[in-house]
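Bench log. Compound arrived from synthesis this morning; before running ITC I wanted a structural hypothesis for how zinc ion sits in the protein. Inputs:
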Amino acid sequence: MVGIMRVLVISDIHANLDALQSVIEDAGSVDQVWCLGDLVGYGPEPNECVDLIKSLPDIICIKGNHDVAALGEIDIRLFNNEAKESMMWHQSKITAENKNYLKNLPEKYESELVTLAHGSPRNPIWEYILDPYVARVNYEFFKNGFCLVGHSHQPIISSWNPSDGVLEWGSPQPGSTITLHNRMIINPGSVGQPRDSDSRAAYGIFNTETLKFEFHRVIYNISSVQSKIINKGLPFRHAQRLSGGW
Ligand code: ZN
């Protein structure tokens, strides 16, 4: 971790190449990229997204539930109908080489400073941190100061002060900056399928020296992605939801 300063933090890309490209361009020069999983699922360009992620010079990437599902090794009956339909399409289109990349991604990443997990540190692939109660329980499952998660597609700031037992929970304003302190769980939001009623792609910039974390949103070409989803015969709802951010 020594020498790393400006880190681009992304999650839940969901095969949305237009959103991913806009985020990378908007973020500008960074020293490292941390990707919190769900590279594929829902969107029209899974291979293009995996290729772009693989090509980033300094990338730490962990796997999400959709990355696991794309390998065809788990039961996808728990997915809703449209997610299932889309997942079967992804399973058939993702190349063997890219499946191999997804398969070999770790479930969790831990350094002295930070833990990265797709869902939660307790259950990295599947658990959603959607409320303060689940957040509180998860503070027992990582040792270092901060845990960065995705999966819910909603930007979240949570902090826990063990000395007075105070747990804080809230949604960051787009464009806001906070200084991380022990101990916090942060979700940067989703690049490719935001679900906080803001259609713009979400990402974070974390400075590992100042511990400042910026919550960013960037406009991308939604109609381009929607056309690709429709042209490739993927569920219409997955095109529709991008304009509303749900
Ligand atoms: Zn996701």
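What the model suggests: Residues 12, 14, 38, 64, 66, 151, 153 surround zinc ion (CB under 6 Å). Residues 177 and 214 are 4 Å apart (CA to CA).
ITC booked for Thursday regardless.
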